[in-house]
Amino acid sequence: MTAQLKAIEGIVISQKDAQPVPSATIFVKNSLKGTFSDSLGRFTLKPDQEWESIMVTCVGYESAVLIVEAGGFAVVRLAPLENSLTEIIVKPAENPAWDIIRKVLANRSKNDPQKYSKFQSSSYSKVTIDYEGLNYKLLKDSSRHLRDRTLFIMENAGDLYQKYPNQKEVVKHTVSNFPRFYPANLLVTQGINPFGFYAPFFQLRVFGESQGINPNQLKNERFYLNPINPDTFRQYDFSLEETVRSKTDTTFRISFKPYIPKTFDGLKGYMKINSDGFAIQELEAANVDSFQVFDFKIYQRYEKVNHRWFPVERKSHLSYRLTNKRYDGNVNYILENVLSDIQPDYVNPSVIFDGATRVILPKSDTISYLAFQKFRPVDISEKYLNIYNNAEMKSKPKLKKVFDALVVPVKIFMSGAYETDNFQWLFKENTFNYHEWLRLAVGVQNNLSKNPRWRWYGNVGYGVKDKTFKYAGSIAYHITKDRLNRFEVFYKDDIERPGKTTFLKPNFMIPGENPLLIGKEEYLLDHYKKMGVSVYFRPFSWSQVQVFAQKEYRSPVQYQLNDLPDYQVNSNQIGINFRYARKETMTRYELMENVQNRFYPILRFQIVKGLPVKGSFETNNFWKSSVDVIQQIRTKKIGSTYLVLSGGMADGNIPFSYLFNNLSVPSRIFGKNTIGDFQSMDLTSYAYNHYVSVALNHNFGKTLLRSNKKWFQPEFSIGNKVAWSRLTQKPYVINHEIVSDFGDGFYEANLTVKNLFRIKLLGTYIGIGGTAIYSYSRGKIESSQFRFAPVISPAIL
Question: What is the DSSP string of 108-159?
């Protein structure tokens, strides 16, 4: 019944002049429960019984004791200490919560669990999707309430390992009410449930990112300013609500919310700070913006194990308002994580940290619901157990057989791979493009989970339209089992655009597809054969280096070079590739790999030296370097800026296929939402050996305009791209036309407005906006000066 008692409120003032007394200590007598008065002398205290005896103390004042009824308002008058008035001048004007927050900031590096040197623990997660309060509207003046229903439930059990700066969760067992043929873990985004809450920003991205997405591509994400940041006292209003003392420490409950008005994406909630290390002991935070489509709430609870605070319980609750003419209610996505059996300062030496932060093992979904119970560290309600029982389809054996038969083909279709005991069969190269129409391909490699020291890989593909075969193969010895340090011999016979620079990719276990980015307009292609050796190694965290030597043969496919029908280039090359992607994370669901929650900067560069070859059309004595830098600069008030800086330099006798022409992509009807690519014209028809390109895109989000209309929630971004190039050697003739550079420069500006209008479709919001692209180039470049592309996307955030 204690929970039903109303809080005691009051104010502490000076008996001498009736001025508020801030930072006074108010606590229940003979108890550990207490709080402080704020800068105006006000306080709130939760009672344990109907009448409470409270004591009020403050430096420079006599103590006072009074009896107050629950729900009552107390005016406490403190008498100044006469003997100390001549010696003590008390100016407690500062918010008493600020000193506690300062100590949290001073200790955040020590208390941040993501920075602990090493540990391991058992890991459990539960995901549910349900609807609640859903009303089915039968008539204008009446409705029938549907009972709350869980649409989806999934549980995972495994282990979590951390060896700074690497972290890896291995899911060994998973159960779900979905049929096994659908990879239920694809519905889970762990990024919405941060491991710790000490970073300056909380990044919310509802969906992840696949390995085929360009790293330049703009993300549908939001960054919420954490109240634990160095400038927090100018941004957030803190209130010390309660102080609970024990024999060993004290817990302070502090609420927070942004000052009004503030334009940044802020949070509101409370945190409990423990005086032992001034670490977060408990936290609850929610979005302040009431007009965003997804409302969310985060809860975290920490426990101390061997002098370190671990987030033993984390919960994220996303709520989506689903409403139309027929029904109205909330759809909830709830993710819970629990840590148990924590072992500080120990990590199983057999764990391989290969860049994947979350791995769902093959056949993890073969466990029964009954057998999973022993891996569940918490109790679940009878409702969920009934859902599992219904999912077994004991009353529909024929339908269950159909679903079981679909497991393998559906997983192959979604992942593009299939694993047997000794091999992994790969189908990702089955792709569409304008040259081949359809490429039919199959690849195979040894099962790396069984033999992580070696990789044997082979692939063969056939183009339906061009009627030619393509081949690829490699043998690699992994010096370290994480594949980050390895020696490789490779061969490839394929087609690609001339001038393409191939940078290093993330450390995928399954080779990713290499899409042929050409438009239906006129395009250039080379047929190439290359063979060589590579050595890969990781010099420091989040980096990768490749040193290679290769021999390559190239010949034109879709064009004629220098009016020579049998033109072919033979080239011997040595070179180095470097890639650095700060805090890059990757998830691996059986054989599906996705890069998620990218951080910045991403730095890639390549240096190639072409060696002379006798008997070739070209002497091929050249060198070539390329660099690509992607950086994000986040501000606390006006959004984030993306910077893409790329450049290249080549000198010597450079064959046409090794000149640069990589500054644009084929135009698309809806445009390509990328930062670094030009869209007002196709620059791949130019060639140059020196170039520099700078692209800036600033995403204001909602910081420029916050509307109180649900249908009008505009998000603005502006961008500008400039590029210059030079061709300093004798120009080539392509299809009887001289290829040139764009020495006068190419200039392009764009304005994007998302969610200019939000319309309801089947109860959900769809954002409609557009991108206006203007080319203000001058000189010999002919381009469409103005382009407009609509932007239609689900209104997620």
Answer: HHHH-GGG-SEEEEEEEEEEEEEEEEEEEEEETTEEEEPPPEEEEEEEEEEE
State the pLDDT at residue 479: 96
Lowest mean pLDDT among 59-68, 78-87, 527-536, 638-647: 78-87
Structure tokens at 225: 């300013």
DSSP β-bridge partners for residue 227: none
The count of other CB atoms within 10 Å of the CB of residue 522 is 12
Q: Burial-class residue 199 by CB neighbours within 10 Å (0-12, 13-18, 19+).
A: middle
CA 298 to chain centre: 17
Given a contact cutoff of 8 angstroms between Cβ atoms, the answer to whether 194 and 228 are in contact is: no
CA atoms 88, 92, 98, 100: torsion sign: positive
Chain centre to alpha carbon of residue 174: 23
- Between CA 334 and CA 319 the distance in angstroms is 8
DSSP-assigned states of every residue in 298-352: EEEEEEEETTEEEEEEEEEEEEEEEE-SSEEEEEEEEEEEEEEEEEET---TT--
pLDDT of residue 50: 87
Smallest Cα–Cα separation from 590: which of 494, 398, 697, 447? 447
Place of tokens 């620059």: 683
d(CA 363, CA 665): 40
Contact 316, 297 (CB under 8 A): yes
Task: Point out the least confidently predicted range of 1-10, 96-105, 291-300, 721-730.
Answer: 1-10
Beta-strand relationship, 8-14 and 42-45? antiparallel
Q: Are 205 and 585 in contact (CB under 8 A)?
A: no
Tell me if the pTM is above 0.70. Answer: yes
Long-range contacts (CB closer than 8 Å, 24 or more residues apart) made by 708-713 = 708/291, 710/291, 710/758, 710/765, 711/757, 711/758, 711/759, 712/756, 712/757, 712/758, 713/291, 713/292, 713/755, 713/758, 713/767, 713/795
468-502: per-residue pLDDT in tens? 999 999 999 999 999 999 999 999 999 998 888 88
| Residue 747, both tokens | 């200039």
Q: How many CA atoms lie within 13 A of 562 on its CB side?
A: 14
Distance CA 443, CA 774 (A): 44
Question: Rounded CA gap, 562 and 617, in Å?
Answer: 11
Digit-coded pLDDT (tens) for 346-382: 999 999 999 888 999 988 988 999 999 999 999 888 8
Is the pLDDT at 744 greater than 70? The verdict is: yes
Q: Is the dihedral of CA 366, 372, 377, 378 positive or negative?
A: positive
Q: How far apart are the first and last CA of the chain?
A: 40
Q: What rounded mean pLDDT belongs to the chain?
A: 84
- For 707, residues 6+ apart whose C-beta sits below 8 A from its C-beta are 291, 713, 714
- pLDDT tens across 4-14, in order? 788 888 999 99
Residues 6+ apart with CB under 8 A from 462: 439, 440, 441, 468, 469, 470
Apex CA 28: angle with CA 64 and CA 38, to 5°?
Answer: 70
Report the DSSP beta bridge partners of residue 121: 160
Q: Would you state the structure tokens that stand for residue 14, as one six-digit string? A: 């000076």
Q: What pLDDT does 223 receive?
A: 82
CB 198 within 8 A of CB 116: no
3-class SS shares of the chain: helix, strand, coil, % to 5: 10, 50, 40
| Amino acid at residue number 787 | R
Residues in the chain: 797
Q: Tell which residue, 495, 492, 490, 532, has the closest CA to residue 515.
A: 495
Helices and strands in the chain: count of H runs, count of E runs: 5, 44
Q: What is the C-alpha to C-alpha distance for residues 440 and 459, in angstroms, rounded to an integer?
A: 11
Tokens of 591: 């054989």
pLDDT at 89: 40
